[in-house]
Amino acid sequence: MSKYNSKKVIVTEDGTLFTEWVIEKYNLEITGIRFDSVAEGEYYQLLLQQRKYGEIKDFECHPKFVLQEKPKITYIADFIVTELDGRQRVVDIKGVETSTFRVKLKLFQAKYTTLPIDILVKKRGDFIPLAQYKKEKAARKRAANKLRKRAEEGRKQNGNHTYRNQKRGR
């Protein structure tokens, strides 16, 4: 487990995903690429499939970018994907968006202005952009607050009687 409770995984060349604890428990000899989370490993599997079926040209795992020389600040992305037309994009899979990542993202965007970065989150089996996830989360929160407010207004209109007060005969 990492500090964000994500399980480290290893994905083999053929795309088979193994969690590290299974490898250690059964003392297996597995060679492959190590990822910090299951979501990253599953996205790697997706990229293998997309390359196989000609949807992307190629990809690279864990590319390193120097954001600042002194003091040296580096950013290791999850993937850099080369599209069929030769354009490249950086992909980062997030489970938790940390303040450190937000700072590095701003530095990255300032230095590498021509290289787009996709920050994805895995929700309900799909990889969606982090911005979309945040909008959906905010909409759910607004809807819940609206319902809570309507319920409170309903209690006020009923003279603050609760079920318990009604049951006691008050």
Task: Give an overview in words.
- Residues 139-170 are annotated as: Disordered.
- The chain is α+β, with helices and mostly antiparallel strands and 170 residues long.
- The protein contains five helices and ten strands, in the order ββαβαβββββαββαα.
- The strands form three sheets. It has a five-stranded mixed beta sheet with strand order 4-7-8-9-10. It has a three-stranded antiparallel beta sheet with strand order 2-1-3. A two-stranded antiparallel sheet has the order 5-6.
- The model has no long low-confidence stretch (mean pLDDT 90).
The main sheet comes to: 5 strands, mixed
Percent in helix: 40-55%
CATH topology: Trna Endonuclease, Chain: A, domain 1
- CATH hierarchy, class: Alpha Beta
Number of helices: 5
Spatial gap, N to C terminus: 54 Å
Q: Number of domains in the coordinates?
A: 1
Shape: extended
Listing every helix as H and every strand as E from the N terminus to the C terminus, the arrangement reads EEHEHEEEEEHEEHH
**Strand content of the residues, in percent?**
25-35%
CATH architecture: 3-Layer(aba) Sandwich
Low-confidence parts lasting 5 or more residues at pLDDT below 50?
none
Number of strand elements: 10
Strand order of the largest sheet: 4-7-8-9-10
Biased composition (Basic residues): 139-149
Region (Disordered): 139-170
Protein name: DUF1064 domain-containing protein
Pfam families: DUF1064
